[in-house]
Write a structure and sequence with these properties.
12 strands, Metallo-beta-lactamase, Chain A, globular, single chain, four-stranded mixed sheet, 227 residues, alpha/beta, five-stranded mixed sheet
């Protein structure tokens, strides 16, 4: 989960895999951060909750935010994302979303899941890629759409400074090409989350070489995993 604060809005990306507020008090945690920010800025800001894509481990905590004051929870379908971020040409169009003196760029990247998006913070130069690109098993639902989306991300990085690429999971160990078993709760010698533009370009090259044939392929920092 990632929280970005602007002069007029706060943007929370994803709400995690746990629904119960008692064991996972996400709303209270986010509210405390925003309250502190509002005291510093001497003004109230709106909280907007969005998602990198429509898989349950990214929106389970939405219920904690729905119906709360000054809070908007964006829906999970492509149409919801288009309406909220004013994307008229999905998935080709990249749009700006202004938090108030802080611009987020919204980049459609279907392939892992139909409503997947990446987000770029122009202040920190961080690129969020959800489950589309991270140190782990890159599950590809729509092979052609995934290839096009990775190409869109690479083209974006050619024209924008990137400090870090951050996905939502770590499934790789520090041993090149070795991942942890599905559902593992113990990750000794876990790889760090940030990936680089060079890693992203390595993924693009592999996808281009594989062509139209979905193929599992192991790399140093990730695994292409058609499903």
């Amino acid at each position: 989960m990632f929280l970005f604060l602007g002069q007029n809005k706060a943007l929370l990306i994803d709400t995690g895999a746990t629904k119960e507020e008692e064991s996972f008090p996400l709303y209270d945690t986010v509210s405390a951060i925003i309250d502190n920010w509002e005291k510093q800025q001497k003004k109230e800001i709106e909280l907007v909750v969005a998602h990198t894509h429509k898989h349950g481990d990214h929106y389970a905590g939405d219920g904690q935010f729905k119906g709360k004051p000054n809070t908007t929870v964006i829906g999970l379908e492509v149409e919801d994302i288009q309406k909220s971020f004013k994307i008229s040409n999905w998935p080709e169009e990249i749009v700006d979303y202004d938090l108030g003196n802080r611009i987020m760029k919204i980049i459609p990247i279907p392939g892992h899941q139909a409503s997947s998006i990446a987000l770029y913070d122009t202040s920190t130069k961080i690129l969020l890629t959800g489950d589309t690109f991270y140190p782990g098993r890159l599950y590809v639902k729509d092979w052609n759409a995934f290839k096009i989306s990775i190409g869109r991300l690479v083209k974006f990085t050619d024209n924008n400074e990137i400090s870090n690429i951050l996905g939502n999971h770590i499934e790789m160990s520090t041993t090149d090409g070795v991942d942890y078993k599905m559902g593992a709760t113990y990750h000794p010698k876990e790889q760090k989350l940030p990936l680089t533009v060079e890693d992203l370009k390595a993924l693009q090259l592999s996808l281009n070489l594989l062509g139209n044939k979905p193929t599992r392929q192991v790399h140093k920092n990730f695994i292409i995993y058609p499903n």
